[in-house]
C-alpha cells in the first residue's frame, strides 16, 4: 500500500495539479488554470503525435492479438509441452531497450543481417527505421515480437478454463476445428480477450522506450509518439505543466476507451454460466 501510494497515487495527483500550472523546475509553480489545455487543443504537434500513436496502436494491437490467439490455440489444441511454452515466453524476458537495440542492428540498412537476407533474395534493401512509411510498422512489429508470448499465455490461461466436454460435444455433432474455434472458443474466451485488449491498448498508447532507442521520433517526426513528445516537453524544454496536461489528457482518453470496451465486450460476464 505504501508503494502504491508513493509511486502511483501521489505522482498521479501531482501530475494533475501540475497540468494547471506553469512549471520549469527552476521556479515555483504558477497557476495558469486551463491555459495548458487550450494550448493542447491548438497544438499541431500534439495532434500529429496522437495520429502517429494511433497508427502504432492499430498495427500493434491488430497483429499481436491475432498472432497471440493463434499461438494460444495451437498450444492448447496440439501440444502440452512446457518447454514450448517457455520458448514462446522467452522474448518477453528481454527488456524493451535491449529488444529495440538488437532489432536496430538486425534491420540496419547497410550492415543488418535482415537486409542482407532481403538483398540475397533479390530485393532492394529497406530502411526499416529510416523510412517514414516503414518506421512505425517496424517498431510495432518489434514490440509484437517481444510481447506476443506473454499475450498468448494470457489467452492460453483463458482457454484452460473452457471445459473439454464442450469440444467433445462439438465433435459428436460433427463440427470441424474451425467451426469449434468460431462458435465455441471465441465466445467463451470473450472475457479474457477483453482483458488482453485493454492491457495491450493501454500499453500501446504508452510506447516510449523502443521508439527512443531506435528512431527518437525520426524521420521528420514520423515516429514522434505522444510519450516521446511528453518527454521532450518535460525534460528537454522544461515545460512540465504542459507535459502534465498532455499526460492527463491521455489518461482520460485511456479511461474512456477502457470503460467503453469493458461494457461493449461484456467483460464481466461469461457465456459458460
Automatic annotation (TrEMBL):
One family name in Pfam for this protein: BPD_transp_1
Keyword match Membrane: yes
Start and end residues of each ABC transmembrane type-1 domain: 50-261
Matching Gene3D superfamilies: MetI-like
GO CC list: plasma membrane
Highest taxon in the source lineage: Bacteria
Protein name in UniProt: Sugar ABC transporter permease
GO biological process, alphabetically ordered: transmembrane transport
Annotated family: Belongs to the binding-protein-dependent transport system permease family.
Organism: Streptomyces bathyalis
Subcellular location: Cell membrane
Transmembrane segments: 54-75, 87-106, 126-145, 188-208, 240-260
SUPFAM superfamilies membership: MetI-like (SSF161098)
Lipid bilayer topology: Multi-pass membrane protein
Keywords: Cell membrane, Membrane, Transmembrane, Transmembrane helix, Transport
Regions annotated as coiled coil: none
Amino acid at each position: 500500500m505504501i508503494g502504491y501510494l508513493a509511486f502511483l497515487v501521489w505522482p498521479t495527483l501531482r501530475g494533475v495539479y501540475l497540468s494547471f500550472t506553469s512549471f520549469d523546475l527552476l521556479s515555483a509553480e504558477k497557476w495558469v488554470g486551463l491555459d495548458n489545455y487550450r494550448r493542447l487543443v491548438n497544438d499541431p504537434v500534439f495532434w500529429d503525435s496522437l495520429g502517429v500513436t494511433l497508427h502504432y496502436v492499430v498495427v500493434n494491437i491488430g497483429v499481436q492479438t491475432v498472432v497471440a490467439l493463434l499461438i494460444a490455440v495451437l498450444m492448447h489444441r496440439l501440444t502440452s509441452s512446457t518447454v514450448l511454452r517457455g520458448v514462446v515466453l522467452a522474448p518477453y524476458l528481454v527488456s524493451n531497450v535491449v529488444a529495440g537495440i538488437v532489432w536496430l542492428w538486425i534491420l540496419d540498412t547497410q550492415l543488418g543481417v535482415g537486409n542482407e537476407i532481403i538483398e540475397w533474395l533479390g530485393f532492394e534493401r529497406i530502411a526499416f527505421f529510416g523510412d517514414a512509411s516503414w518506421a512505425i510498422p517496424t517498431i510495432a512489429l518489434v514490440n509484437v515480437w517481444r510481447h506476443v508470448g506473454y499475450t498468448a499465455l494470457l489467452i492460453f490461461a483463458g482457454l484452460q478454463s473452457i471445459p473439454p466436454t464442450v469440444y467433445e460435444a462439438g465433435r459428436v455433432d460433427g463440427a470441424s476445428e474451425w467451426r469449434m474455434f468460431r462458435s465455441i472458443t471465441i465466445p467463451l474466451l470473450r472475457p479474457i480477450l477483453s482483458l488482453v485488449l485493454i492491457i495491450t491498448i493501454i500499453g500501446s498508447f504508452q510506447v516510449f522506450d523502443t521508439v527512443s532507442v531506435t528512431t527518437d521520433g525520426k524521420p521528420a517526426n514520423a515516429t514522434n509518439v505522444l510519450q516521446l513528445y511528453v518527454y521532450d516537453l518535460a525534460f528537454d524544454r522544461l515545460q512540465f505543466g504542459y507535459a502534465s496536461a498532455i499526460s492527463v489528457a491521455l489518461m482520460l482518453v485511456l479511461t474512456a476507451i477502457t470503460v467503453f470496451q469493458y461494457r461493449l465486450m461484456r467483460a464481466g460476464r461469461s457465456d459458460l454460466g
